Each structure stands twice: as structure tokens, then as C-alpha cells.
């Protein structure tokens, strides 16, 4: 009995660290784990909002994040996401695990040295860097931001190691630990957020470092179970290593553009009213949930198919898969964006509305969320359209377009924030996102004329019509709830907001699904079939 139990526990541990996975199972696992991560992120943001409010302390925390985050994304993330996995996996596919492990060891060695040097320099010059990131801060905020930045500069080191270990896991198709490790990062921040209101803001920084460390440890253990053994090496002349560094250049530039956008938004927000940084990032966090869950997940899953079709010159298959995924993303994101626009106040109040997060904060974050919701369709499709270029081995065009969008966003943020304050940042971001998507589609359709498919546009038109009618139904439901439960409405209780949100969401979902089913959209048929777990017939 004890022996069998021990064996079962051992088997469970092995599966957890990556010894039992299939491609289809991994795809489902990654989706579920990512959704769980977003839920934890919302819990994290709620604790931050209720514990500190959208004020000076939370502004300081978000601003202190920028330098460590910039270092990790630019120095490590670009290489791992763009180059390491295909090179490493290629050696494994050719039956050369020893060469693959040598390359991984070199990347770990060089990457760790680079990130430690960069983090050390940032630690030394933090007092000079902080005024550049947040020029509008008071002297006290500057000092506190420097302290938080210096603590959190440990996190890029752990993230850098974790990124390589995670790539090794993906290359070996070991997905369980890879998928669940990011949960530990959010749990670390949550732990810090629970004690920070009483013990001090620096505990938020400790939470970030703790979460990054736990994420690294889990992926280190899992990577070691694949047979990987780290042997320090600086042999950058290995062909695989050189290819990684060459391939990382365009993606690193693209990541750098995104990070510069974040920096500029933080810089501008720091010069506005107190709380602007917190309000903008809390609204962005909410808006990015559907973008991440649908836009990023769909783009990631279809990328190998697009790449294979492009490589084999199967243009029809390339276009078919791309247009299908475009419609699938919009099928979910367009109605969600309308729901976010109509229920922005209820969403913000229900998720963040407690403790020190008052009604003034709610109004600002809700306004920001409403503006960002307008461009969710663009933000959700941009990753897919960029990967469509990558599948054609064209990394230059999406990077150039991203640079143009960054310039427009910066100019728009400077202009609009002068007139509208923090609201102007959301206006600029939304406008730049729509323009970026338009440019991506324009240049991609120039390379692949078949992309201008009338069937795709017909389907999108039906989605928009159904979503618009859904919006009217939701709007009517909101007024109906107001009319029937005026007593709760006057006291603006959580119960009232919850009833409004649930009633409008249920009515909207029913109307939207009925209409899309009536329009004979394949996305609706597929979704309902999966939802009901049986084949539906006309």
C-alpha cells in the first residue's frame, strides 16, 4: 500500500515537472494556465488597488518596475522568443542533444553575464535613471522609487535564467511546469501585496523578486529532468549561438519599441495629476485580458501552421488559416469590447472597488478602460498579423510599422495628455493601435493579394452587426435593472453593480449567440458545439 502510494506520488511529481504531455494536451494546458494566471493578475491588481489606492505609492511602484522590466525584455526576451527555441529544437530533432545542451549552456552563461552587468549598472545609476523615468515625481517619491528599483533589479536575473529554462522545456515538449511556473510569479507579488500596506511599499518589490525566483526554480527543476546539464561556457563561436544572436536582432528591436512605449507613457503620466500612472496601468491590465487570452493564444497556436504553409508555398492554405483565425479572434473580442465599454464602471468597481480605491479612482479607470475597449480588436489582431509576416520570413516590415506606431503614440500622448490629462494616453494608444493594424494589413495584403477575401469581410460584418445589436440589448438591460432596483442603485452597493453586470452580460451573450447562429457563422456553430459537448444540427 505504502509502496504503491509512493509510486503514485512519484509519478505525479514527474508528470508535474514535464514527463507526461501531448501536443493537444499541452495546448489546452497552456490555455487554462494562462487564464489562471490572468485571474491571479487581477487578484494581484485588486490587492494593490485596495491596499494603496490609485495614488502616489502605487505610482511609485509602477514607475520602479520600468527599468528592471526594460532590461529583461530587451536583453533576454528577444533572444529567447525569436531565436533560441527553433535553434535548440532543431538540434534535438536531428538527434544531437549534446550540441543543443552546449548551445543552451553558452546562452545561459553569456545571457547571465550580460544581465548581471546591466542590472549592476542600473543599480549604481538608479538615482540618475529614476528622474528620467518619472520626472514629475516629488523628491520623496524619487527616493522611494530608487529603493524599489534597486530591489527589483534582482528579478531580471531570475527571469533571464527562467526564460532559457522555459525554452528548453518547450523545445522538449514538457509543458506542465512551463505553464504553471508564471503562477508562482503572481503569487509572489500577491504575498508582497498582502503585507506591504502595513510594513511598507518595499515589500511589493520583495514580492516581485520572490515570485521571479520561484518561477526560475520550478523551471530549473523541470529542465534538469529533460537531461539538460548546465556547463558554463563562453564559446560564442558555436554556429548555433551565432545564429541565435543574429536572429534575435529584429525581435529585440521590436520588443525595445514596446518597452519604449511603456517608458514614455510612464514619463508623461508622472507629470500629470497624482495617481495617473496607477490609473493608466490598472485600466491597461483589464483591457489586456481579452487581448492576451484570445489574441495572443490564437496567434501562437496558428503560427506553426502559417510558417509551414508559407515554407511549402501553399498560399491558399496560408490565407485560409490566417483569415479563419482573424474571424475567430474577432468573434470573441468584438462583443467583449462592446461589453467592456458598456460595463466599464461596473467592471472597475467590482474588481478594484474597495479599501483605498475610491469612486474618483473608479471614474478615471473606467473612462480609460472605455477608450481602450474601442481598440481591442486592433490590439488583439496585431500579434497575429505580425506573426503572419514572420511566417513569410519578413521580420523587417512589422518592426518598421511598430516603430511608426510608436512615434504616433508618443506624439499623440504628448498632445492629447495636454488637453485631457491621463485620458489622453488612452486616446493616443487606441489610435496608434488601429493605425498599426491598418498598416500591417495593407502591406501584408500587398504581398498576399488573396488575403482580401470577401468571405472573411462578410463574416466580420455579420459579427459587428450581431455585436451592435447585443450592445443595444445590454444597454436596455442596464436601464431595466436601474428601474426595478432603484434602492440599491441609490446606495451604489456592490450588489447593485453585480446584478447589473450579470444581467446585462447574460442577456448580451444570449442575444449575440442567437444572432451569430442565425447568421450561420461557423465560429458560432463551433463554439456552441464545444460548449454543449455534442454536435448541433440545423
Short précis:
It contains 21 helices and no strands.
Give the helix tally: 21
Give the strand tally.
Answer: 0
Overall average residue pLDDT: 83
Alpha-beta classification: mainly alpha
User: What helical percentage do the residues reach?
Assistant: over 70%
Distance separating the two termini: 54 Å
* Rg (CA only): 24 Å
Sequence of secondary-structure elements: HHHHHHHHHHHHHHHHHHHHH
Low-confidence stretches: 5-27, 534-538
Shape: globular
Main β-sheet: number of strands, strand sense, barrel status?
none
Strand content: under 5%
Written account of the structure:
- The protein is mainly α.
- Helices cover 86% and strands 0% of the residues.
- Helix 3 runs parallel beside helix 7.
- The longest helix has 38 residues, at 56-93.
- The model is unreliable at 5-27 and 534-538 (pLDDT under 50).
Using brief descriptors, characterize the structure shown.
disordered C terminus; single chain; mainly alpha; 21 helices
Helix-strand blueprint:
Blueprint lengths: L1 H18 L3 H30 L3 H38 L3 H28 L1 H8 L5 H14 L2 H17 L4 H24 L2 H23 L14 H32 L5 H36 L3 H28 L1 H9 L6 H16 L1 H16 L4 H25 L2 H25 L6 H31 L1 H6 L2 H25 L3 H11 L6
Amino acid at each position: 500500500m505504502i509502496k504503491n502510494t509512493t509510486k503514485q506520488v512519484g509519478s505525479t511529481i514527474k508528470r508535474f515537472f514535464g514527463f507526461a504531455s501531448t501536443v493537444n494536451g499541452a495546448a489546452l494546458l497552456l490555455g487554462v494556465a494562462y487564464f489562471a494566471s490572468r485571474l491571479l493578475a487581477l487578484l494581484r491588481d485588486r490587492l494593490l488597488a485596495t491596499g494603496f489606492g490609485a495614488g502616489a505609492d502605487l505610482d511609485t511602484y509602477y514607475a520602479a518596475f520600468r527599468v528592471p522590466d526594460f532590461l529583461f525584455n530587451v536583453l533576454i526576451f528577444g533572444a529567447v522568443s525569436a531565436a533560441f527555441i527553433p535553434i535548440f529544437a532543431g538540434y534535438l530533432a536531428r538527434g544531437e542533444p549534446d550540441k543543443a545542451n552546449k548551445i543552451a549552456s553558452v546562452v545561459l552563461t553569456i545571457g547571465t553575464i550580460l544581465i548581471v552587468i546591466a542590472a549592476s549598472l542600473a543599480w549604481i545609476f538608479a538615482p540618475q535613471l529614476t528622474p528620467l523615468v518619472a520626472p514629475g515625481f516629488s523628491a520623496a517619491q524619487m527616493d522611494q522609487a530608487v529603493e524599489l528599483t534597486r530591489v527589483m533589479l534582482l528579478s531580471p536575473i531570475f527571469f533571464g535564467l527562467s526564460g532559457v529554462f522555459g525554452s528548453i522545456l518547450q523545445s522538449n515538449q514538457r509543458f506542465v511546469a512551463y505553464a504553471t511556473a508564471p503562477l508562482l510569479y503572481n503569487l509572489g507579488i500577491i504575498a508582497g501585496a498582502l503585507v506591504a500596506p502595513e510594513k511598507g511599499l518595499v515589500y511589493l518589490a520583495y514580492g516581485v523578486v520572490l515570485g521571479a525566483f520561484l518561477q526560475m526554480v520550478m523551471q530549473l527543476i523541470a529542465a534538469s529532468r529533460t537531461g539538460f546539464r548546465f556547463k558554463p561556457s563562453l564559446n560564442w563561436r558555436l554556429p548555433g549561438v551565432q545564429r541565435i544572436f543574429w536572429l534575435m536582432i529584429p525581435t529585440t528591436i521590436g520588443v525595445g519599441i514596446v518597452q519604449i512605449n511603456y517608458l514614455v507613457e510612464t514619463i508623461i503620466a508622472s507629470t500629470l495629476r497624482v495617481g495617473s500612472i496607477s490609473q493608466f496601468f490598472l485600466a491597461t491590465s483589464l483591457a489586456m485580458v481579452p487581448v492576451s487570452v484570445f489574441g495572443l493564444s490564437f496567434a501562437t497556436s496558428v503560427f506553426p501552421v502559417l510558417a509551414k504553409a508559407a515554407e511549402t508555398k501553399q498560399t491558399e492554405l496560408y490565407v485560409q488559416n490566417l483569415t479563419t483565425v482573424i474571424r475567430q479572434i474577432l468573434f470573441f473580442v468584438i462583443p467583449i469590447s462592446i461589453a467592456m465599454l458598456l460595463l466599464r464602471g461596473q467592471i472597475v468597481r467590482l474588481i478594484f472597488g474597495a479599501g483605498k480605491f475610491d469612486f474618483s479612482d473608479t471614474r478615471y479607470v473606467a473612462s480609460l478602460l472605455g477608450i481602450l475597449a474601442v481598440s481591442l480588436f486592433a490590439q488583439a489582431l496585431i500579434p497575429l498579423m505580425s506573426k503572419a509576416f514572420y511566417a513569410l520570413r519578413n521580420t523587417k516590415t512589422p518592426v518598421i510599422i511598430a516603430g511608426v506606431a510608436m512615434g504616433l503614440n508618443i506624439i499623440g500622448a504628448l498632445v492629447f495628455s495636454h488637453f485631457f490629462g491621463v485620458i489622453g494616453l488612452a486616446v493616443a494608444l487606441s489610435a496608434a493601435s488601429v493605425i498599426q493594424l491598418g498598416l500591417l494589413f495593407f502591406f501584408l495584403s500587398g504581398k498576399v493579394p488573396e488575403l482580401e477575401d470577401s468571405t472573411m469581410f462578410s463574416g466580420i460584418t455579420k459579427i459587428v452587426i450581431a455585436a451592435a445589436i447585443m450592445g443595444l440589448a445590454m444597454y436596455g438591460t442596464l436601464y431595466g435593472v436601474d428601474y426595478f432596483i432603484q434602492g440599491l442603485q441609490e446606495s451604489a452597493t456592490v450588489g447593485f453593480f453585480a446584478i447589473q453586470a450579470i444581467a446585462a452580460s447574460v442577456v448580451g451573450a444570449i442575444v449575440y449567440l442567437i444572432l451569430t447562429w442565425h447568421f450561420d457563422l461557423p465560429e458560432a456553430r463551433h463554439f456552441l458545439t464545444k460548449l454543449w459537448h455534442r454536435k448541433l444540427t440545423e
